[in-house]
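Quick question: who can interpret this fold?

. . .
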Amino acid sequence: MIETFWNICLLHDIVTRDQLLREAVRVVQTRKSLELQGATHTSILEPDMLFQWMKQNAGEREFGHFPGDRDLFYRLYQVGKDMDLLDYAVQTIQQDRVTGGIVVHTSIVDRFKDMCERNLYRTLLIAEVEKYLRGLAETRLFKKLFTITLLTESYIIAKLLKTYFEAYPNVHIIQGSIYQALPLSEKYEAILTIPNFGLKMDDVEDATIRDSEGVAVNHLLPLLRDTGRISVTFPPRMMFQSGSIAKWRELTNESYPVQSVHMLPDGLFRPYTSVKTYQVEFGRSPTEQVLISRLQLQKMSLETEREISIHAEAFAQLENWRVDMLLDEDQDTLRSFQQAPVSKVKLRDVADIFRGKSVLKQDLRAGNIKVLNISNIEDGEVKLDQLETIDEEERKVKRYEILPGDLVMACRGTVNKLAIFPEAEGTVIASANIIVIRFKVSIISGFAKIFLESPVGATLIQSFQRGTTVMNLNPSDVGELELPLLPHEEQMNRVNSYNEEKELFKQAIREATDRWEQVKNKLYSELY
């Protein structure tokens, strides 16, 4: 039924998400108006009369001009009059490849429902509800003992929901944006939201944060009742980025203490986003312990894989909310580093950090500028003989040039790679898949490489990854990494020891390889 309705629409250039939703609501509204009037006479259902009835009762005032004639509407009516509007909306939004909005996995709504039932919450607000329609339809949350307010910025989605939930007095529909102050007098015991990721909001009253996630939460938090909670889905940068976001985390936790932080499973929001995601709950009331967990998807439910708690005062002292490290099973090693009396320094304070240049395949040609890519880093070393080139003026790419002694790090891909850049002829620049770290006098690049390759260093890098299965490191995030600040002579001793032992290891490999080749060749020669 739904696909047939779509196909009729598409054949008549009714193609966008809102157009497809609008015509479905127009059809259902027409049917409902007929039922209310008790108009069952067959003449009303003839194309001419039906078309006129629609224009009078579900016409241009509410939905705008109908993009077709009486025959088109008649066909749409016959196919769509008995459609389940909520199911239709879910499928239409899921198929939308132009708008590309997130469709939230049902398990998020299911977990929100469980939280509400556990805390005996009854008044709920779901913001930007179009993202949650799938979960709303599958959990049938509106049939529980809740009073639910559904908030959407879209006029046509609001109209669709009002039409669908007409028979549910416990469901209220409001049109409005969470990125602006909401003129709502009612307060709620539970709020669910997944703000748009990574947008900068220009027109905001509170200039302390302009990131869409923080702006949205700031507008929703005042709507909480004293014992209520808001459950928010965040991308990784909101959990550990410094600057205005760090200040926002601190101020928000002071006024609306964090109750829990849950790491969501990789890929839960694919294909809409592939970054890591976290579910954070804030409340108006203080809590003694902050619950931290890593969740996994089992069938269609989110189940706890690992769970710890941290005292609220200790949580407030954290510079960031990188719960990945707190949940890491190798906590003893990490804790030893964090609690060690040795001085520590952030990477951004002792190095210049930059990402390389975006080089397209069609840009690669014989030229004077060499390009370092991930594939040129093997076993912790740069393979200079494999570099590709581009033909470009040196002054235009000077900012991406790699100098001898720079630490180069893969920032995309599936494997973390590190190497010290050696002496090279000519100009070599980094590609966009490489982060270049140029140390000042206090840290030796070889020492930094050893630390970042260690189990503690690898865990720290992992905690800053924004991607899931595919790594995605941001230079500004990498700058937040902490390194042990040892005396220069001690760093040099460790680097020398590392290099000497690595050379002995490589020599042993070469000798063993030569021996094996000799034995193989001798055996082969004796076969005939």
Summary: The chain has a mean pLDDT of 88. Residues 488-525 form the longest helix (38 residues). The two ends are 75 Å apart (CA to CA).
